[in-house]
Amino acid sequence: MKTCNTCGDVKPFAEFHRCKSKADGLSGRCKSCQSEYYREWRKNNASRAEYERKYRAENAEHLTAVHAKWQRENPEKCRTYTATHRAKKRAATV
Ligand SMILES: [Zn+2]
Predict the structure, then answer these.
(1) Which residues have CB under 8 Å from 31's CB, separation 6+?
(2) Ligand 1 mean position to 49 CA, how many Å?
(3) Measured at the alpha carbon of residue 8, what is the angle toward residues 7 and 10, in degrees to the nearest 5?
(4) How far is the CA of 45 from the centre of ligand 1 (A)?
(5) pLDDT tens digits for range 49-77
(6) Is the pLDDT higher at 91 or at 2?
(7) How far apart are CA 68 and CA 54, in angstroms?
(8) How far apart are CA 72 and CA 86, in angstroms?
(9) What is the Cα–Cα distance from 53 to 29, expressed in whole angstroms?
(10) What DSSP line would sit under 2-65, residue for residue?
């Protein structure tokens, strides 16, 4: 058993993530506190949307090339995808 340094609960070792840098090899936070911490971290730091926007901006050429290649290799899937996408969009706007 180990005490979580965040919520103070005493929990079984299985409730803690492994962490090589720690003396006992386990994270100081229990798993639920860790996921809560990450949720907060994501909210306070780069949001997923922001990350994706940046990624797209930085890799625009690469993504366009990948997409074009995929379209060439998967014309059928591409048509299906476009049709589904259009139908969804139409359903959303009406
Ligand atoms: Zn905890």
Answers:
(1) 15, 16, 17
(2) 28
(3) 115
(4) 22
(5) 778 888 899 999 999 999 999 999 999 98
(6) 2
(7) 21
(8) 20
(9) 31
(10) EE-TTT--EE-GGGEEE-TTSTTSEEEEEHHHHHHHHHHHHHHS--HHHHHHHHHHHTHHHHHH
For the stretch 13-48, what's the b/e string if a residue is b when 16 or more beta carbons lie within 10 angstroms of its beta carbon? eebbeeeeeeeeebbbbbeebbeeeeeeeeeeeeee
**Distance, CA 15 to ligand 1 centroid (Å)?**
9
Q: Indicate whether 48 pLDDT > 80.
A: no
Residue 46 in tokens? 């780069």
